[in-house]
Amino acid sequence: MYVAVKGGERAIDNAHALLAEKRRGDTSVAELSVAQIREQLSLAVNRVMAEGSLFDPDLAALAIKQAQGDLIEAIFLIRAYRTTLPRFGSSRPIDTGQMSCVRRVSATFKDAPGGQVLGPTFDYTHRLLDFKLMADGEVPEAETAPPRTEPTPHIMDFLNTEGLIEEEEAHDEIPPDLTRAPLELPADRPLRLQSLTRGDEGFILGMAYSTQRGYARNHAFVGELRIGTVPVEMEIPELGFAIEIGEIEVSECETVNQFKGSKTEPPQFTRGYGLIFGQSERKAISMALVDRALRWKELGEDDVGAPAQNEEFVLYHADNIQATGFLEHIKLPHYVDFQAELELVRKMRAEAQTGLQEAAE
Amino acid sequence: MTDYNFAYLDEQTKRMIRRAILKGLAVPGYQVPFASREMPMPYGWGTGGVQVSAAVMTPEDRFKVIDQGSDDTTNAVSIRRFFERTAGVAVTEETREATVIQTRHRIPETPLEAGQILVYQVPIPEPLRFLEPSEVETRKMHSLEEYGLMHVKLYEDISQHGAIATAYAYPVMVQDRYVMDPSPIPKFDNPKLHSPAIQLFGAGREQRIYAVPPFTKVVSLDFEDFPFEASKADGACALCGVDNSYLDEVIMDDAGNRMFVCSDTDFCTTRRAQGHVGAEGVPS
User: Model ipTM?
Assistant: First the structure.
């Protein structure tokens, strides 16, 4: 005797309780604090802030804790929280030329005013497991140098004195907000950059990599990669001037790309641009490469049909919260649709069978 | 929950969604882009429907949620609870009692009435999507009323399979203008799209809202010599005995024995309460 499937409510409650228990793990092991995550898993925190589009290291750390370290789930928590916040204005554009850099490297010039600053990077570490970390994580204090007091100019500006690089005109237009207006195509560059900076790191990396392997190759040099903090200023209408409301850490990558010229543009170097919350240089470089690939139309290049050139393809599939939600929804019940398919297949098979029999007779 | 506004969304967002709904009602079947918000449940799990429900809901409403026709499937429970928590509205499982019904994959068997709102969760709002992947192209096709591709697809189905091989999300023509995806309801439900109730469709991830106002002409696409057929599994519900409701097939044992029961649980329960008993049912 079939009993109607009941019990969804109780199953959900019990599943949530079990999830909470799993999150905590073995209770004889000390619990992680949000501060520990914020301080010791800072690159994970940065990724959650970047793709969550919310600069708040404490909330990002909390989200990572709650999500058991599943970063896409943590990003989702941050996004769902962010969407409830009122948007009461926009900041003035940050000036990365005023950045106080912890890292700044150029692959195009051996040296430049401001110097090369390696900063905290994995680049030249040997990827050998440090078993000592299993016992204790004490580290000797690192050497420090007095910070530069004068601004560090962008390296691209030096190239530009010769007019070798395409000019980017400054303008005061307020960029569109992807989180407040539906995505409409064709998208302009500010909208594309916005989508890329909050896009999935793995997806953007894969797209960027595909351009390097020949799918819309645009040979990129890292003109400059810089990481550091910049002040954020906001115009307060009541005051009539801008005040500093805080400081954020960002990674910025400017690429210089080979360009032989096109029907509309003279031979020159072109640019790709990446800007990400926190220290996230893999993403910043990837973003710059994909940005450059997406600019084929405005530079008069050919559409070679590469995925990274297709803005609809890139922008519609870069968001991991959209992607993971839709992907995982297929585990929800679909038995009504499946039943409909089942009937159809049975009917078509029956008809095919009759047809075969008739043919045989 | 005092930290959030009534029905979770802030009033500015609701206003934006209501505008999209009104536009949708004014142009039946047209997909209106809207600034879909990030909801506290995943995309693909009904965020479009939830946003539409939140935008039309009032404190006096009685809310019903079904998934696959049932009020007790886990995601239906989850969405119903969400509104109990954030809006404090009354909830019901009875189709007749409900003023707002959010659904995934079904239209209730009990005919809807004027004054009721049926909100559909929509995964892919674009009926032409699997014929043409580009949104830029499909929007152009809608604006030019260029639906040849769809008719060719249906024709090819017939020439290859002898029938139109679409069992759910069967495309419809709305008020002689827009081809519309009715969401993945079985084609059995298509005739119910002509209804006295307001029907709203929300696709959160795809950022689209569309609507079918009461008594709008909705025609399932077909050919004169291959007319549309609202098919279902042959047989009657084993519990309530009805033979004209959409049936789920349930596997009973290791030997593969199966039975058919109503997919619409409220419809089935109501019938059994009225004394109808199916082949394997027991009097309630």
Answer: 0.85
